[in-house]
Design a protein that fits this description.
The complex is a heterodimer of chains A (about 110) and B (about 120). Chain A is mainly β. Chain A has no helices and eleven strands. In chain A, strands 2, 4, 5, 9, 10 and 11 form a six-stranded mixed sheet that branches. In chain A, strands 1-3-8-7-6 form a five-stranded antiparallel sheet, with no helix packed on it. Helix content of chain B is about 0%, strand content about 50%. The N and C termini of chain B lie far apart (about 35 Å). Classes of the chains: A mainly beta (about 110), B mainly beta (about 120).
Chain lengths: ~110, ~120
């Protein structure tokens, strides 16, 4: 059974800092990995999707990497802003059931002024 | 714009009553939709797969008689929480997509509070 863990559970940084969020998964036979943002009381916003054959994806200040063999992914946020404050979730689409996601525990990010 | 619309966003109901949550796929037809729930301070957990025109597939530990899922059209799936109890209070959210490894889109989610 796939298990997804995110470290740290919570993070507070001053504005402007670069930061890295970590995600690890136990079964490397994944189809893809997706990073989401969840704002309090809101739904999920997809940030980046990495297919199993890819090593990284970039969108603006965000860069996500994937090391399938070691069961790890990182989300790098450059020049953080207060508007980046949210909970970040990584989710794994498993081989054969890519549409059904296994979510990580989330990292709650606070970017302070 | 939104790809998936979910309604209602917030609902409070009395214990013992039933509540229906709708999930609509706005941009494409979906033969399959997924329902997740998230208890406070926990991550999202898949509840069931909604299949258009056939019975839903439930994950282990999810009571199919309590969480009724109907997927009567290619753009609408509904989740009905029957005889709701306070422990059913949770955030329920649906998703669409993911075929061939493409992006999965989520609805806005529904907060259910049972009093």
């Amino acid at each position: 059974k796939q298990e997804v863990t995110q470290i740290p559970a919570a993070l507070s940084v001053p504005e402007g800092e670069n930061l890295v969020l970590n995600c690890s998964f136990t079964d490397s036979a994944i189809y893809n990995l997706q990073w989401f943002r969840q704002d309090p009381g809101k739904g999920l916003t997809s940030l980046l999707l990495i297919q199993s054959s890819q090593r990284e994806q970039t969108s603006g200040r965000l860069n996500a990497s994937l090391d399938k063999s070691s069961g790890r992914s990182t989300l790098y946020i450059a020049a953080s802003q207060p508007g980046d404050s949210a909970t970040y979730l990584c989710a794994v689409g498993n081989t054969g059931t890519a549409s059904k996601l296994t979510f990580g525990t989330g990292t709650r990010l606070q970017v302070t002024l | 714009g939104a790809v998936v619309s979910q309604h209602p966003s917030w609902v409070i109901c009395k214990s013992g009553t039933s509540v229906k949550i709708e999930c609509r796929s706005l941009d494409f037809q979906a033969t399959t939709m997924f329902w997740y729930r998230q208890f406070p301070k926990q991550s999202l957990m898949l509840m069931a797969t909604s299949n258009e025109g056939s019975k839903a597939t439930y994950e282990q530990g999810v009571e199919k008689d309590k969480f009724l899922i109907n997927h009567a059209s290619l753009t609408l799936s509904t989740l009905t929480v029957t005889s709701a109890h306070p422990e059913d209070s949770s955030f329920y959210i649906c998703s669409v997509g993911g075929w061939s490894g493409n992006t999965i889109y989520f609805g806005e989610g529904s907060w259910l509070t049972v009093v």
